[in-house]
Amino acid sequence: MHEFRRRLISGLLLCGLIAGCTSQPESPEQSAEKNTADKKPKIALIMKSLANDFFSSMAKGAESHQQAHSEDYDLVVNGIKDERDLSRQVALVEEMVSSGVDAIVIAPADSKALVPALRRAREAGVVVINIDNKLDSEILQAEKISIPFVGPDNKAGAKKVGDYLATKLNTGDEVILLEGIRTSFNGTQRRLGFEAAMTAAGIKIVDSQSAQWEMSMANTLVSSMLSEHPNVKAILAANDSMALGALAAVRNSGKVGEVAIVGFDNIPAVQQAIKEGQILATADQHGGELAVFGIEHALRLVADPEAKVEDRETPVDLITAEVLK
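Request: output the structure for the sequence above.
Response:
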């Protein structure tokens, strides 16, 4: 009998020491609320070609930001091998939605083709932020969605570069223009900015072709264009990869020092070429920070789904040899 009482008392004491021994178990609703409260937002960054230094810099900037704010959110970084691989970028959007991300920050390879996939992402409850290349407003309206754009005024940036180039040329000089992908909003805006600068200065664009943002294609096109237009004094390239391709063609044509080149993006290789006097100028849209701007905007909308959805303009600056000294 004494042994029984001893065991009973020991059991009661043990029960009192163990937290929750006599408490009610959590309901499924309470458990779900606790898990939601403890969960960090998961952000997917989807870019264009990671072979392009601009997007490589963007990825590094985003990863550095996440490491500094690791307690606030998780990050998944994706990109496509070829800037024209629209189907792969659409697939990435769908994969990220299926994986349960809270937000997608995307630099779309095409301003129109990605909209339906992003609409489906929104319908699945995913916050979507558009960076770098603005989605087509008419397609967004047709799909009945609003997606905020975080990025620079590409037209204004290109005009800054074109205006600077014009100070080195004379009225009536001939130039050629290398466009990006023509269905991309940023490509169109940069072309318009360059054209506005040349028109204002009385400089003639004698040829304008798309090199699809690609260095090798720009090299091939410029070689042909210089042969057809031997009096060309400058080349306006809508991104720095194409500017480097143009530089290679100018070298091969023996026209270094005779044909000025400008670009857009401020990648390291072009910075060096500007310092060496081989490229005249470029525009810096702060690629290392651009994804971060988008991520921060996404985190605000994840935290407050009722927040106002609005665009955010980011800086774009003229880069010349004087700036890089």
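The first helix runs from residue 2 to 17.
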